[in-house]
Amino acid sequence: MRHGPRLSRRDLLRGRFLPSAPPAADVAAATGDGVAVVMAWGCLAFRGTICSVCVERCPEDGALRLEAGRPVVAPDRCTGCGDCVDVCPAPSRAVVIRPRRDR
Ligand code: SF4
Ligand code: SF4
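Above: inputs. Below: predicted complex with iron/sulfur cluster.
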């Protein structure tokens, strides 16, 4: 007797038979074990457009500040809450939460 969904060869090749795990960044944000990282290549402020939304939204004093108009994270103060990620208007989300062990 067969149990579970039928899997086609294409499913197997695409890895659909594997249980999906949440991205490490989501786990880090949910567990508070993450830290914000600004991706300079996608950040509007680094590319010459005035933007400080992430800094304004950050609830932790000194965790995210502007230096020469560009956002800089203080890892020891960042809680990994993800508020800065949610408000970033850059097309490719220029700030992400990374697990601390990856840094
Ligand atoms: S993750 Fe939270 S605490 Fe860290 S820089 Fe972003 S808004 Fe601030
Ligand atoms: S909100 Fe996004 S684009 Fe704007 S300064 Fe922060 S990281 Fe850069």
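Residues 38, 43-45, 51-54, 71, 88, 90, 94-95 surround iron/sulfur cluster (ligand 2) (CB under 6 Å).
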